[in-house]
Design brief:
Number of helices: 14
Organism: Rhizopogon vinicolor AM-OR11-026
Protein name: F-box domain-containing protein
Number of strands: 14
Shape: elongated
Length: 385
Amino acid sequence: MLTAFITPLQVIRRPVTMEDWSVFERYASRVRVLGDSDLFGSVDVEFVHAMMAFSSKSLLVPNLRAIYFLGICTPAFHPCIRYLLGPDLIYFHLGWSAEDFWSNIICSLLSGLGKHSPQLKVVRLYGAPPQVAELALRGLPHLQEVYLIADKAFRFRTSTLDILRIQSSTLTSTRNVVEQWFAPCKQLHLLSTTAETAPVIERALCELNIVLRTFTPLMPFSSLKIVDLAAFCTSLVDDNALGSIVKSWPRLEELYLGIRFFSRITPRVTFQGLLTVLSSCLNLREFGLAFDATTPDLPTAEKPGGWVCNTNITTLHVGFSPIEQPPQVAVVLSAVLPCLAEINVERHITISRDRDAREAKWAEVLKYISFSNLKEARGFVCLKP
């Protein structure tokens, strides 16, 4: 019998019997999802161990599909987790930053995760040691989503992922974590807990000497459909580097690069880089790129149809892209993005310089692109045969 005291803790007042086990077993078979900040619902550890002693199948909750736990778990409960890892488990969320959580028992269990629960589709491990995370992700042929918080590199190979999320403390550690991975996926999210403002991001990228090799770890992900690097700075990536990067992602449908914040450094990517993206990623539907729009590459008689025409993109995010000649820019964009209906600049934050003026010029571009004003825009441009 369980008696509740003033505190939430549920404790045993008498020995557990076979009759108690039969009641527990009947209700346990109905449980599909287990988890909270307290995995065992404030039940006394002695009761859980008593139930484990009666379990002939070595499973406390035989039909469990999902485990969600991100809270305090004393070492006394660690052996109990093995009795939750059933063959039908598809969602596993486990983690705690405290060092005593990652005991030898927990690490041993995760090392054999594929043996206990081979049907797992989603694995989220927060704070697991690199060698433990590496072993935990092995032997999971149905894995579709992985979310890791890690600062140290380890090897990881898979071919089934839809979503891969990596969170590290810095941009440097994020890059290092995925450096030796072979994990094609449709969505890759690289998250960091620093560089949240534009100056911090700019400083961090400059200190890292961001060049093409920064993106090299991402380029083997040839099946990517979404790349969101909106906070990255494009001032240290030129047209050639951007071309090499996007050609590795032929299936890309969404790309955001450098559009979130203002930077005092002019982007090195120009209209040529924008055109390379469009010609390399023919499935692109959502697009954002910070680029130098001050010198548009106008169409000529030699290359009137030499540019790709993307009719899927209706909104273009340009971030802090500098612009001087809206009519000429409109001519170029109308040729490659004829269905464009919206242009957005970076977020309205106080550190953005001349944002209102740039926003007005990009609004003017959109005005010229519209059907009724396109001829007027071309009237301002001298096209040489």
